[in-house]
Amino acid sequence: MTDATSGSWTTDGPSAATPGAVTLTDLLRVPMHRMRLVGAAALVGLLAALGYVLLVPSTLTANAVVAVRPVVTDAFTPSGAGADRAVNMNVESGIATGTEVVRRLADAAGGHPRDIRGALEVEVPTGGQILRFSYQAGEAQRAVQGANLAAQAYLDVRRTMYEQQRAEMLRSYDASITKVAAQQAVLQRRASTTKDPAVANAVVAELSGVNNQLTQLNSARTEIAAVDVNPGWVTQSAEKSLVASAGHRPLYLVAGLLGGALIGIVLAYAWESADRRVRSVADGRDATGLPLLGTVRRPAFRGSPRAVDADVRYVAMAVAERVRPPARVALVSTREDATALTAGLAVALAADGRDVFVADDSGRAERLRATVLADRGRLPIDPSRPLVPKPRPAGSPPAAAAGEAAAARRPSPHPPGGRPSTDADATLTIPRVSSARPENGRVVDPDEVSVGVGSVRFGTWRQGADHGLVLFNAPAAESDERGVAVARQGSAVVVVERDRTRQSDLRRLVERLRAAGVTPLGFVLTRNGRA
Question: What is the DSSP letter of 331?
Fold first, then answer.
């Protein structure tokens, strides 16, 4: 009927003037109370990740590395410290994943260009002139083929682009050389036909400049024609032995579990904000404004129910202090069942010598009787308090006189009024044996359970009208008003179950009791279930 540890019960909440600091325990309290929701969300995330791992085919990744070189006129000239700036690697990466490379790869390996673009990935390490081609496929052979074809396609495309640039430059130089050569021929004809020495000197000087220009153009063309347009080399080809699984699939399970747990925690906080439950004594006081009669904890070990019984006896002492016979006490709750607490209070009150009548109009009398019998067997034995039988009615013979009379009378071997019959068909009359058991020197009614020096009787509310102490096991107040109606004739004890009773329902129940003119004795903070 309650908590596993006594330390979790907080009797006093923080003062309204000085709010307490939020601790890590406060943050973890909501997910712990909503552990089922968090566990369900984590399980859903784990199942989703497991489904992805099992249903989505695994992919293999092959890598090929290409070293990119700048195009220079002198291949033996060192590039210096700014080698990474000699080639714009962002441009090279764009060309490596461009349409031309993807088209050539699709023509060579087969497949849709969109699928190939999704499987191809190009990485550019910082500060280097290296392109790492990664290709994913369902088979190792296809992954290796795709990576090598992508690297080679990039080199072919880049070489073609350089060759086209060189051809354009050579055509431009050829056109300039042709133009200068034609000008040179014209000047040579003028120099050979002119008669004026001054004009001839001028033509010769102009012809010398044209010759120098033509020499420079031819030299520049020779350098352009000698440029090595090789864009780079494949420094590492993809191989089957180097193929690795794409991603770490077991990590998907861990990610799914953690992601589901995180979503569950968020849902737990959202649910807690919409559905506030009573978590502590402070919450019960805030919701009811009533004094605390006691807390009933769940024992740490289910095989040791003494802690629960002791808590119930403390609550019984608090109730007995506030009522005087004839007393009518209704144990009311919002949506919960207070049968276990009602039976425990009846046993604790009867053990001190009271005759308790437990009333129930909801068909739970058998459960009450079974619980009372179980609790009676766990009562502590007090040797300092002997069991004293109840006084006999006036006029009954003393025990000694009755004993002497019984000893003086000789018992008859036959039942009273019966003699042996010789008739074979005669019927033997057997006297009726009463089902009542004498206990502690008195006769117990069949509907009565002796508890210590007291007793517990069971019945309906109407049957308990003549008894001095009546405990009414009221049904849930949210669906039945009989508990509040009975409390109007006596008093009420509000039963609050920790982590289960909603604060809104509890406030509504207290408002209904006060509107009906009932002043509750207080509330009991307990936990559903028995040890």
Answer: E
Mean pLDDT of 102-113: 86
Residue 34 DSSP code? T
Q: Are 190 and 203 in contact (CB under 8 A)?
A: yes
pLDDT recorded at residue 79: 57
Q: How far apart are CA 189 and CA 488, in angstroms?
A: 137
Residue 357 CB neighbours (<10 A): 23
Residue 229 burial (10 A CB sphere; 0-12, 13-18, 19+)? middle
Alpha helices, H only, 133-233: 140-193, 197-225
Distances (CA, A) of 255 to 141, 265, 370: 30, 15, 50
Local structure of residue 156 (DSSP, 8 states):
H
Report helix angle 339-350 to 365-376, nearest 10: 50
Amino acid letter, 36: R
Place of tokens 């700014």: 82
Q: Could you tell me the pLDDT band of residue 310, with boundaries at 50, 70 and 90?
A: confident
Count CB neighbours of 92 within 10 A. Answer: 20
Is the pTM higher than 0.70? no
Specify the pLDDT at position 231. 85
**Residue 401 pLDDT > 60:** no
pLDDT average, residue stretch 244-248 = 67
3-state secondary structure of 339: helix
Helices (H), 411-481: none
Compute how many other C-beta atoms are within 10 angstroms of the C-beta atom of residue 277. Answer: 19
Structure tokens at 518: 């009932």
User: What is the C-alpha separation between 327 and 329, in angstroms, rounded?
Assistant: 6
What confidence tier does 509 reach under pLDDT thresholds 50, 70, 90?
very high
Average pLDDT over residues 243-265: 83
Pairing verdict, β 454-459 and 491-497: unpaired
Furthest-apart CA atoms within the chain: distance in Å:
189
Chain mean pLDDT for the chain:
78
What are the DSSP calls for 47-106, one per residue?
A: HHHHHHHHHSPP-EEEEEEEEE----S-TTS---TTHHHHS-HHHHHHHHTSHHHHHHHH
> In 3D, which of 289, 341, 292, 317 has the Cα closest to residue 11?
292
Element holding 131 (H helix, E strand): strand 130-137
Adjacent-strand bridge partners of 135: 62, 120
